[in-house]
Amino acid sequence: xxxxxxxxxxxxxxxxxxxxxxxxxxxxxxxxxxxxxxxxxxxxxxxxxxxxxxxxxxxxxxxxxxxxxxxxxxxxxxxxxxxxxxxxxxxxxxxxxxxxxxxxxxxxxxxxxxxxxxxxxxxxxxxxxxxxxxxxxxxxxxxxxxxxxxxxxxxxxxxxxxxxxxxxxxxxxxxxxxxxxxxxxxxxxxxxxxxxxxxxxxxxxxxxxxxxxxxxxxxxxxxxxxxxxxxxxxxxxxxxxxxxxxxxxxxxxxxxxxxxxxxxxxxxxxxxxxxxxxxxxxxxxxxxxxxxxxxxxxxxxxxxxxxxxxxxxxxxxxxxxxxxxxxxxxxxxxxxxxxxxxxxxxxxxxxxxxxxxxxxxxxxxxxxxxxxxxxxxxxxxxxxxxxxxxxxxxxxxxxxxxxxxxxxxxxxxxxxxxxxxxxxx
Amino acid sequence: xxxxxxxxxxxxxxxxxxxxxxxxxxxxxxxxxxxxxxxxxxxxxxxxxxxxxxxxxxxxxxxxxxxxxxxxxxxxxxxxxxxxxxxxxxxxxxxxxxxxxxxxxxxxxxxxxxxxxxxxxxxxxxxxxxxxxxxxxxxxxxxxxxxxxxxxxxxxxxxxxxxxxxxxxxxxxxx
Amino acid sequence: xxxxxxxxxxxxxxxxxxxxxxxxxxxxxxxxxxxxxxxxxxxxxxxxxxxxxxxxxxxxxxxxxxxxxxxxxxxxxxxxxxxxxxxxxxxxxxxxxxxxxxxxxxxxxxxxxxxxxxxxxxxxxxxxxxxxxxxxxxxxxxxxxxxxxxxxxxxxxxxxxxxxxx
Amino acid sequence: xxxxxxxxxxxxxxxxxxxxxxxxxxxxxxxxxxxxxxxxxxxxxxxxxxxxxxxxxxxxxxxxxxxxxxxxxxxxxxxxxxxxxxxxxxxxxxxxxxxxxxxxxxxxxxxxxxxxxxxxxxxxxxxxxxxxxxxxxxxxxxxxxxxxxxxxxxxxxxxxxxxxxxxxxxxxxxxxxxxxxxxxxxxxxxxxxxxxxxxxxxxxxxxxxxxxxxxxxxxxxxxxxxxxxxxxxxxxxxxxxxxxxxxxxxxxxxxxxxxxxxxxxxxxxxxxxxxxxxxxxxxxxxxxxxxxxxxxxxxxxxxxxxxxxxxxxxxxxxxxxxxxxxxxxxxxxxxxxxxxxxxxxxxxxxxxxxxxxxxxxxxxxxxxxxxxxxxxxxxxxxxxxxxxxxxxxxxxxxxxxxxxxxxxxxxxxxxxxx
Lengths: 425, 175, 166, 418
Known about the structure:
A: alpha/beta; B: 7-stranded mixed β-barrel; globular
C-alpha cells in the first residue's frame, strides 16, 4: 500500500515503517524558538537540565519577530535571555530584530528542505510545508525536550488530499481560495490532519501563494499542509538550500497509490474575493456581500501574506486607484523580512505607498501580536491580511475582517470594505 | 479510587475557544507560570472575571476544538496554576492537546458536549462530579450524565510520568 | 499655613525620568497609580515608604528633563507637602505651580537639612525651621503666582478667571 | 540700550517694551501637542469651556508610540481623534505617511516661523529656535489652560549669548558642539534663560544642525534657544508658512546678556555624554572601546536627512556588529533617504529601519534595553531608565560616532573610519 508524504517524512525521521495512528519518535532537523516562547524554553531548559548543554547547537535557531525591536522592558529582557543562552550554548543561528518573520527568514537562509522535521514556538510554523517540510508549532515543553535529546513524539496523521484547478480571475488570489476553504471546511475542518495540495493551480503558484495556503491550514486545525516544490519554487529553493533538495523531492513525494482520508477537488475559476468577517476565520462571506462595511484601519503583512508578491498585488490595486487612499483609514504595510523590504525598495513600491499616505514598517509580526504596530482601540474595525480575527485579538473590543492583500488595499482606497474588482477595471 | 472523583463548579465555554481568549497575546512576554493564572479568560466575553472567581477544583467545560490558535503554552499553565483539575471538551486543538499532555495536565474528550452546551444541558455554575479514571461525568444540578475518554497510547505514559520532561528522564534512567 | 514632615534628601539635577519614568506616561493614567511609582528608579525606599506630609529636599535643578507633569502629579498625589531645593528646572517649576504643589528655593536650608530629620515650613512667616532649631527665611512667591497657589492650581485659577464655578 | 531676542519677541507680543525679569501674558501663535493631547483634552474638559480658543492654532502630531503598540496607546490615540473631530482642529497628523516626530513636522510644515511664540507640551519644543521662533515646552495643565484662554504667562528671561566661530574638523558635528557646551556649563547652566547662538559658524550651519543645537537647549535648562533668522531660514519657509504673522526678529548688537560664551569649532573633537546625565561629557578618547549592545540613530535631535547621510557614509558597504535601529525623523525624511539610496545602505548593513516616530527615546517603543545593556544614541537624554530599564546605560553621541560604534560593537572614533 502506498504512503502519503507525511508518512514518508515521518519514516525518514523515525527510521521506522509507520501507519496512520502510530506514535513515533522523530529526529528533529531544526528546533527553533522566537522571542515569544523562546525565553520560556530557555528558562525551562536551564531548570530541568541544571544549565546543561543542548543536543546539537547547529540544529537550533532563534528568530526575533514578535516584538522587534522590543517595545517594553519585559520584551527586552526576554530577548536578552535568548541572546545570552545562544552565546553560552554556541548557537550561531540567531536572527535578531533586524531580520523579520522567523519562518520566512529560515527559508531565505536555506535552513529548510523538503522532508525536514522542524519545530518552532509559532502555530504557523507549518507554512514551511509550502516547500514540503514537516514544520509544526509546539509549546515550550516540546522544544525543551527536543533540545535535550533531539527527538520528539508525533502521531502519524491521516492525510487529506486537496486538488485545485482553474485560474484566478483578476482581483482574486490564493488568499481568497483559502478564505473560501476555511468557510467551507470550518475552524476544525482539517482536525489534526496533514493536507497535500495538488492540481494545476498549485503547480503554477508562487512560493508566496504556497506560504499563504499552508499557513492557513492552522486555521482549519490541520497539522501541516504539504506541497512538493516544483518549477520556479524548486529552483529558488535549490539556490538557497542546496542540491539535496532535489533528492528529497524524489524520495519523499507521495506514492501514486497512497491512501487519503478525503479527496477534495476545487476549481477556482469564477471564485470571488472572500472575507472572514468578525469575529472568526470561518465566518466567511464574499467581499461583495460584506462590502461597504465601516473600517478604521487596514493592515497588510504577517506570515500569511507579507511577501513581496503580496505587497506587489496590493501595489497593483493602489496603482489602479492612482495612488490615492482614503483619509478616513490608517493603512499599514509590514513586509515579512528584510529581504522583502529591500525588494520593495528596489521596485519603487515604498516610495509610492508613502506618497499615498500608507505607513511602511520594519519587518515583524506587527499587528498579529496585538503588542506592536497598529493595536486597535475598542470599537474600531480593521481589515487585515493576517490569519486570525478572534475577538479582541488586536485590541480589546475591536473587530477585524481578514482578506487578501488586494481586497485590503481596495478597502484602504475607498475607506470601506471594498471588492478590488471595483478598482481593477 | 476516591481521589479520582472530583467535585466542582462548571464554567461553560463555546466551540472553538481560541488561545487569545484563554490567554491573550498581550501577556506573552510573561515567563513565570505562576503569574500567568491571573490573565485566564480575560478576553472571553462574559468570563472576564474567571481568574478571580474560579475556585481551585472548578471545571472548564467546552465544545469542540478547545485551544485553537497559537502554540503558547501559557494557555495551559494559566489554568493549571489556577487549580482547574481537568478540562472537559468535545475535542482539543492539536497544539493545545500536546501542551496539556506534555505538562501532565488532564484533559477529557467528552462526546456530545458541544451540543449539550448549546442545548443547555450543562450550564455555568452547575455542580459537576467527574471521575477522572472512568471518565464518568455527572451534572449534579440537573442529573445529566456524560462520558469522557481519557488519553491513551503514548500520551497515557507521558501523563503517568507527570509530563514530557519527566517521561524523558524516566526513559533515560531505564537505559 | 504650616507643614511639618520627614525629609527625603537628594542631590543635584534629579531628572523627570527618575521621578516618573517615560515608559509609564501612557500606561498609567490614574493619579493614585502615578503616586505608586514615584521616584522608582532613583530611590526604591521612597517608593516603598514615603508618607503623606513628607518633604523632599534636593540640590540644584530638580526636575530637569521632560515636560511631563506626572513628575509633579505623582509627588503631589503621594502627599508630599513641599519640595525645598537649591533650584528647579523651568518646566518643573511651572508644573508645580500649576498643580499647586508648594516649592521653595533655599540653598542654605538644603545644605543645613539632613535626610530623615523633621522640618517645619511656615508659609505665613516664610520660614523653614530645622530640627536643630535653625531658621531659614525664603522669599514669598511673586504676586502673580500667589494667586495660582491660593486657588489650588492653574485649572481652578483659570476657571475662576473665566467666571466658571465648579 | 539694546534688547535681546527674548525681550523683543515677548515685548512685541505683549504690546509694550519689556526687559528681563518682567512678567508678561501673551497669546501663543501655535500650541503643539503629541500623544499627550488626550490627557490634556481631559483636563481641558474639566475647565468647563466648550470650545478651544482657536482650533487652527492647535497642532496635534502623533509620534510617541505609533502605530499604537498597546491597548492603552490605541485608546489614547482614539481619544485624540475624537477630540479633533469634535473641536474641528485642522492641523492633525495621525498615523499616516504625512507624519513624523512632532518637532520635525513643526519645522517641515511651516509652523516654526521667525518671531512666532510657540508653546508645546513637550520639553524639546525649543527646537524651533532654529527657525527664529520663540518656542518652549510646558506641562499638560498649562496647555489645557492655554487652549481655554489663548494666553500664557512668561517671565521675560535673561539671555545667554553663545558665539560660535571656526570650522568643524572631519568627524565632528553640531551634536559634538552642543554636548561640549552642556558639559561645560552643566545641566542647569542656562536655567530659565534664553540661549542665543551667534557667530559666523552658525550662519554656515544647515538648519538641521541648528535644530540639533536648539533642541538640546532644554538639556542645559534653557527656556528657549534660538539662531538668527537668516537667508537660509527664509528660504526654507518660503511657500509653506502656516501664518503670515511671522517676522524676522533678532537681538540688537548692544543687547545685554547675563552670560557670554565663545566656542571655536576647530577645537572640538568627537565626544559622548556618558550615563546618566547629559552634562557628563567625555571626549571620544576617554570612552573608546566601551562595549555597546545597541546603536540608535533617530529622535528629534539627530534623524534628519543630513544626519542619515553622515551615518550612511560610514556604514556603506559594511555590516553592523550590534543591533542598530534607524528611525528617520519624519516620513518626508524617510522618502528622501529612500530616493538617495540611504535606506538600502542601512538595510544592507543589517540595520532595522522602522517607521518614523520617537522610537525607544523615552522608553515607549522600538528598541527598549535589557538590564546591563548599553546603547549609543543620537537622542538627547541618557537619564537612568530613559530607554525603559533602570539598569541600562545610554551614551549620547553624533550620528557619525553612533555609526562608527555600530560597526565595531563598541564606542568608536568616527575619524578612524572616515
